[in-house]
Amino acid sequence: MPEAKNLPDAEVLCTALADAMRGHVDPAATVLVGIHTGGVWVAERLHAALGLKRPSGSIDVSFYRDDFNQRGLHANARTSQIPFDVEGAHIVIVDDVLYTGRTIRAAMNELFDYGRPAKIDLAVLADRGGRELPVAPSFCPHALSLPATQMLALERADDGTLAFRLVDK
Amino acid sequence: MSAFGKSHSPQLNSHGELQHLLTIEGLPREVLTRILDTAAPFSEVAEREVKKVPLLRGKSVFNLFFENSTRTRTTFEIAAKRLSADVINLNINTSSANKGETLLDTADNLAAMHADMFVVRHASSGAPYLIARHMAATGRDHIHVVNAGDGRHAHPTQGLLDMYTIRHYKKDFTQLTVAIVGDVLHSRVARSQIHALTTLGVPEVRVIAPKTLLPTGIERLGVRVFHDMREGLRGVDVVMMLRLQNERMQGALLPSTQEYFKSYGLTPEKLALAKPDAIVMHPGPMNRGVEIDSAVADGGQAVILPQVTFGIAVRMAVMAMLAGN
Question: I want to staple A86 with a disulfide (CB 3.0 to 4.6 A). Which of A40, A105, A115, B140 is the partner?
Fold first, then answer.
């Protein structure tokens, strides 16, 4: 994997992201919602690093995707789990990579079907550019620019280590 | 070449994706498993403040019921509405069929109203297939057809929701003994259940019924036949009761319903012969005191009401998968 040399270290970015969020979250009240699958891994790290008291949620945006009419239903749709009252909550949506912004729109639409949050922030490990919607991260320790032919994927090793990999589409 | 072109099954498109759901027979195990897997996240939607997801927003689903049904039509309607589709219900009693319009004319007229999906129940076996073939032959293969029960042939969503229920309680199909009890002869539900169970790898499927309520050659579907209910229930993990279909009875197949209950009604005593953790299922509507004792229907082993709830999620999964293919 020669290109891996130029990629950011996901473990370092997890720590940097937690540092950026500290002071902006209330451990007793703030809740995280990870987007399947990478975002759920990152949310687990943040939850521990920030000492959050309330359980995190997870979202699979398959039912809210805007490309359903072109691509059909995603083959491995999973159950979204929101183990807290969304009404009035401070929610941080957590994802691995921010790209077009469409996934984040879908996640926000889904969250609003559970209630009306007081505030939603967005935390991502990396912003790769290429936005198609007016979405900006609240917390993001790394920005890079990638051509549309490449995808930045977060992977988790058996020992739990997170690492980025470039995938040609 | 048929109007469906080269695809192996009229239900699958050229990519092997589900285009219509007409019968479980012949569907690969992967397709059945994918439907069950997809239904799981849909069941969670019912727990939300807003019990809706936007997948079928702007789509029109026509419930075409040429035969009476309350539960099936209602659960299809709820499923479509929870997918944000617009739902139009048509019942035979108020439709043009009584004025002489043919099945395909009815379908053509609804297609001209920009239908995206037909959910069809009909007393004649093959009616949904006829509509699907007609749509394909006339270049309207973007319209999907779901069979909601046709004659004695098939009731695939019932079969699928039964499989979802079994998997929910028993996890692994490949270790189970399942008994289907009752009027197999007239039952489209039984046919769909048998095809689903054998496709999903259930090693022993039993049917328990009097000779007069069994179709000839049922063994060819891969089932063991029992005429003695006590013998057939011994050691089973799942008991799937069928409704005694009074309205479909022709001639005297049975001496009396009391007599039937004595031999084939599920009582606590007979259920005790199954495994202690066996579950009892029934597709509804139940005839209490005919095929099932109230003590069993309302007892701790019955999962009859969860079946209804799961049916909504399974129908959501089927409609969402079809609409996306």
Answer: A115
| Same domain as B187, residue B123 | no
Q: Which tens digit of pLDDT belongs to each residue from B20-40?
A: 999 999 999 999 999 999 999
- Same domain for B95 and B125: yes
Distance CA(B75)–CA(B85), nearest Å, equals 14
User: Where are the strands (E) in chain A, listed by range?
Assistant: 31-35, 57-59, 90-98, 119-127, 150-156, 162-168
Contacts of A148 (CB under 8 A, 6+ apart): A130, A169
pTM: 0.90
Residues B267 and B192 in one domain: yes
What average pLDDT score do residues B283-294 get? 94
**Interface predicted TM-score (ipTM):** 0.82
B132 neighbors B22 (Cβ within 8 angstroms): yes
Task: Show the domain range for B89.
Answer: 29-154+310-324
Mutate to test the interface with A, among B12, B30, B38, B322 (most CBs of A within 10 A): B38
Give me the amino acid identity at A119: K
Residues B212 and B254 in one domain: yes
**Which CATH number is A2-168 given?**
3.40.50.2020
Among the partner residues A64, A77, A114, nearest to B38 by beta-carbon distance: A77
Residues from chain A contacting residue B17 (CB–CB below 8 Å): 72
A82 close to A32: Cβ distance less than 8 angstroms = no
φ, ψ (nearest 5 deg) of residue B242? -115, 155
Q: What is the pLDDT of residues B111-138, one digit of tens each?
A: 999 999 999 999 999 999 999 999 999 9
